[in-house]
Design goal:
The chain has eight helices and seven strands; from the N terminus they run H-H-H-E-H-E-H-E-H-E-H-E-H-E-E. It has helices at about 1-15, 20-30, 40-50, 65-75, 85-100, 115, 135-145, 175-185, and strands at about 55-60, 80-85, 105-110, 125-130, 150-155, 190-195, 200-205. Helix 2 (about 20-30) runs antiparallel to helix 5 and helix 3 (about 40-50) runs parallel beside helix 4.
């Protein structure tokens, strides 16, 4: 295990973050808002770049760390971000501007995700990031799979929840929720799933396109 922990630490320290992301990360930590780790952020950028993403939605704006990483990978994308903390979103908007992202590419919705998501258009996004209210993670993933286009990806941050999901002695509601989610997606034929141990876990769910039927 010591070797794996050293490798995980090396993977986090390998990432070089832009100054705007470092500043947003420090601000986030000061306010007690847990951002995605550097290695998690780098994976978000790679996924956005590989998908040539043009439309991204994230559930949980925070101070903008994950959104900044998305723009690193897909600088022309439009980002829709939902959070009920207006002050956090204002800080995130400032960080996006400092990165050089045009205001027209950022849509910040200040409201509870549970109220907003049912109104969003189905199959309209290349990537959906779930990073908010861990007790609602299953509900948010269900919405994400509805919103993402076939071939698109739903990303769940903190999927190993601070190392607790892998510990069989931990049985609180949050841990049970993540375990239930992992069990369900592993058995699903509707997605291709992968669980990365970077940070405290990054779950990737790519929605499988339904085969065309002859008419």
């Amino acid at each position: 295990m010591a070797g794996k922990e050293s490798s995980w630490k090396f993977a986090e320290e390998f990432v070089v973050e832009r100054a705007e992301i470092v500043q947003a990360r420090h601000h986030s930590i000061e306010l007690g808002v847990e951002p995605v780790s550097p290695a998690m952020g780098a994976q978000l950028a790679v996924l956005a770049a590989a998908a040539a993403a043009t439309s991204i939605i994230e559930i949980g704006t925070g101070l903008g760390v994950s959104g900044l990483w998305f723009f690193v990978g897909a600088p022309q994308a439009t980002l829709t971000s939902i959070d009920f903390e207006l002050d956090y979103q204002q800080s995130a908007r400032k960080s996006f501007a400092e990165l050089g992202v045009p205001a027209k590419q950022v849509r910040l919705i200040t409201d509870r995700a549970a109220d907003v998501l049912p109104r969003m258009n189905e199959q309209s996004y290349d990537i959906v990031l779930v990073d908010a209210e861990p007790l609602s993670v299953i509900q948010y993933v269900e919405h994400g799979l509805r919103l993402v286009r076939p071939g698109g990806t739903v990303i769940v941050a903190h999927a190993l929840w601070r190392g607790r999901v892998a510990d069989p002695t931990k049985r609180d509601d949050t841990v049970r929720g993540f375990r239930s989610l992992l069990k369900e997606v592993a058995a699903s034929d509707a997605v291709i799933s992968s669980l990365s141990p970077v940070g405290d876990g990054l779950l990737l769910l790519t929605k499988i396109a339904e085969p065309e039927t002859d008419r």
